[in-house]
């Protein structure tokens, strides 16, 4: 009989891309600054150099290590024990494409994480392209209760 310690979990990768009508520098600033991350992703996301302390609407927290920063092009972090890579490519007319690659997602968490990134990325687009935050900021109406606009 296999023990839990010996059990190998299958890891998966999530890939998303989104077209933004904003320049790569502005998008990079949203990803890499405390105020930027707070504006679209988490209730709070202060960093102390190489660690981001995320606080989410349901009270969950995570200390995320910053792994790579390439100005206006790439930002990599450890995120819930997986690797998240944001890559930005400039396109026409001061626009850009943002690529999200989340490697090492446990198969049992895949569906929730996969859809969760859609929520994060669409809110990023709303903030950066239209200046509005789609989240409700209500601790009683979070992802845990089935709300996509947590």
TrEMBL record:
<dbReference type="InterPro" id="IPR013538">
    <property type="entry name" value="ASHA1/2-like_C"/>
</dbReference>
<feature type="domain" description="Activator of Hsp90 ATPase homologue 1/2-like C-terminal">
    <location>
        <begin position="24"/>
        <end position="128"/>
    </location>
</feature>
<comment type="similarity">
    <text>Belongs to the AHA1 family.</text>
</comment>
<protein>
    <recommendedName>
        <fullName>Activator of Hsp90 ATPase homologue 1/2-like C-terminal domain-containing protein</fullName>
    </recommendedName>
</protein>
<dbReference type="Pfam" id="PF08327">
    <property type="entry name" value="AHSA1"/>
</dbReference>
<dbReference type="InterPro" id="IPR023393">
    <property type="entry name" value="START-like_dom_sf"/>
</dbReference>
